Amino acid sequence: MAIIDETDRKILKELQRDASLGLESLGEKVHLSRNACWRRIKALEDSGVIRGRVALLEPGKVGLGLTVFMFIRTSSHDANWLTKFARATSDMPEVLSAYRMTGDLDYLIRARVSDVAGYDQLYQRLINKIDMSDVSASFVMEELKETTELPL
């Protein structure tokens, strides 16, 4: 774990809210000079605390209005299967995240698709790439909270 001080936390909070902030504006918000902000951001990037800076899109406005959670069970629990599964999911742009789980589920996928037909296309591509013993899905009816901000 990287060691970050309170000023780094302030910088990170501001960048999580708006990564497009200029160094002048950011410096004003965290009470640092432009150069001091730049040095701290560079150090946070070099240490891997900041993985990247992105634009957050409105999914419905780009034709991806449906969030689906796919629940995967497999009868194969070996390294080869996991490698194949990881490769298959990473090659599918609709898959936003994939997790290996504890408990009743083996894997959980969160994906964004246009509609139920888009989900079916994703499902068909996934089952053609990898053997699974059970796949079920739930569709999000209403998004109550979704954020990329980590609680610092």
UniProtKB/TrEMBL annotation:
<dbReference type="InterPro" id="IPR000485">
    <property type="entry name" value="AsnC-type_HTH_dom"/>
</dbReference>
<dbReference type="Pfam" id="PF13404">
    <property type="entry name" value="HTH_AsnC-type"/>
</dbReference>
<dbReference type="InterPro" id="IPR036390">
    <property type="entry name" value="WH_DNA-bd_sf"/>
</dbReference>
<dbReference type="Pfam" id="PF01037">
    <property type="entry name" value="AsnC_trans_reg"/>
</dbReference>
<dbReference type="InterPro" id="IPR019888">
    <property type="entry name" value="Tscrpt_reg_AsnC-like"/>
</dbReference>
<keyword id="KW-0804">Transcription</keyword>
<dbReference type="InterPro" id="IPR011008">
    <property type="entry name" value="Dimeric_a/b-barrel"/>
</dbReference>
<dbReference type="InterPro" id="IPR011991">
    <property type="entry name" value="ArsR-like_HTH"/>
</dbReference>
<feature type="domain" description="HTH asnC-type">
    <location>
        <begin position="4"/>
        <end position="65"/>
    </location>
</feature>
<keyword id="KW-0805">Transcription regulation</keyword>
<keyword id="KW-0238">DNA-binding</keyword>
<dbReference type="InterPro" id="IPR019887">
    <property type="entry name" value="Tscrpt_reg_AsnC/Lrp_C"/>
</dbReference>
<protein>
    <submittedName>
        <fullName>Lrp/AsnC family transcriptional regulator</fullName>
    </submittedName>
</protein>
<dbReference type="InterPro" id="IPR036388">
    <property type="entry name" value="WH-like_DNA-bd_sf"/>
</dbReference>
